[in-house]
Automatic annotation (TrEMBL):
The keyword Plastid does not apply. The chain crosses the membrane at residues 294-318. PANTHER family: VESICULAR MANNOSE-BINDING LECTIN, VIP36-LIKE PROTEIN. This is Lectin, mannose binding 2 like. Its main location: membrane. It is a single-pass type I membrane protein; Single-pass membrane protein. GO terms for cellular component: COPII-coated ER to Golgi transport vesicle; endoplasmic reticulum membrane; endoplasmic reticulum-Golgi intermediate compartment; Golgi membrane. It is found in: Endomembrane system; Golgi apparatus membrane. One of its GO terms (biological process) is endoplasmic reticulum to Golgi vesicle-mediated transport. Keywords: Disulfide bond, Glycoprotein, Golgi apparatus, Lectin, Membrane, Metal-binding, Signal, Transmembrane, Transmembrane helix. It comes from Aquila chrysaetos chrysaetos. Residues 31-256 form the L-type lectin-like domain. PROSITE patterns: L_LECTIN_LIKE. One of its GO terms (molecular function) is D-mannose binding.
Length: 330
């Protein structure tokens, strides 16, 4: 496994070059495992009230080889959440997971989500977590709710950024608020399945390794994603009338150290609400730049000039009208 992990890390480095994160400065990119945001065997302290870095919620259970978010039983939901807020600027989350169960194709559900959000430990309808969230959700959806759609093949991975104003549309499998996605046949496989969420220089990418070849495949690539710092990582799952085992084997967060030009430093300044540039979704417009003092002065000045001009014209018109009235009277 160590050799395979090395190949996967090398594969990501090569893919970073392909995504424009490389070039001459790619050699200066460093990555460090952040244990306070990572979860792996033997899961020591997970769910402990007095110690540990991760909390369990709902039906989630710690097993020897994995953390089971939900069992292959109807109407269950579970989650595991990091207790430590993440203040990293650039990061990469590697998720080792397994989805399996007795249900045949399209008779299983519902999937799981990986979260980077302001709120934690709040159960809800979106893959076991709250709706109208603040932050990022990456969804591994195993059941198609929209009957008439033909474009997607499930299981399907998608991503959503929310500033708290958007609702995840279950009936349409999140299509109205989706940033991007890909088909990922991840159920009942005999080999390891991985997903990587990478956030570098306001660019969100999701990669998958699900074919047992130790090769990363593109899934989602969205520039202009602005995520605040200080949010929490977590993962959650839910079953309804249909079910599956949703297992998390590990979550590994890497800090990425990337050089920035002065222009990139200015562009990547701190933000306080999640937003995606140029995204045409209700409530998700990029915040307007604050108006400068000079611009405000000019607007007020010319508004006053226009008002005075209108008053003068009104007085002249009124005097002309009075003069015409007197002439007509005599």
């Amino acid at each position: 496994m160590a050799a395979a992990a090395g190949r996967w890390r090398a594969g990501l480095a090569l893919l970073a070059v392909a995504l424009g994160l490389g070039g001459p400065r790619a050699e200066q990119t460093e990555e460090h495992l952040k244990r306070e945001h990572s979860l792996s065997k033997p899961y020591q302290g997970v769910g402990s009230a007095s110690s540990g870095l991760w909390d369990l919620l709902g039906n989630a259970m710690v097993m020897t080889q994995y953390i089971r978010l939900t069992p292959d039983v109807q109407s269950k939901q579970g989650a595991v959440w990091n207790r430590v807020p993440c203040y990293l600027r650039d990061w990469e989350m590697q998720v080792h997971f397994k989805i399996h169960g007795q249900g045949k194709k399209n008779l299983n559900g519902d999937g799981f989500a990986i979260w980077y959000t302001k709120d934690r430990m709040q159960p809800g309808p979106v893959f076991g977590s709250k709706d109208n969230f603040l932050g990022l959700g990456v969804f591994v959806d195993t059941y198609p709710n929209e009957e008439k759609q033909q474009e997607r093949v499930f299981p399907y991975i998608s991503a959503m950024v929310n500033n708290g104003s958007l609702t995840y549309d279950h009936d349409r499998d999140g299509r109205p608020t989706e940033l991007g996605g890909c088909t990922a046949m991840v159920r009942n496989l005999n080999h390891d399945t991985f997903l990587v969420i990478r956030y570098v220089k306001r660019r969100l990418t999701v990669l998958i390794d699900i074919d047992g070849k130790h090769e990363w495949r593109d899934c989602i690539d969205v520039p202009g994603v602005r995520l605040p710092r200080g949010y929490y990582f977590g993962t959650s799952s839910v079953t309804g009338d249909l079910s599956d085992n949703h297992d998390i084997i590990s979550l590994k967060l890497y800090q990425l150290t990337v050089e920035r030009t002065p222009e990139e430093e200015k562009r990547d300044r701190e933000v306080y609400l999640p937003v995606v540039d140029n995204l045409k979704l209700p409530g998700m417009e990029a915040p307007l730049e604050p108006m400068s003092g000079l611009a405000l002065f000019l607007i007020v000045f010319f508004s006053l000039v226009a008002i005075v001009f209108a008053i003068v014209i009104g007085v002249i018109v009124y005097n002309k009208w009075q003069e015409q009235s007197r002439k007509h009277f005599y």
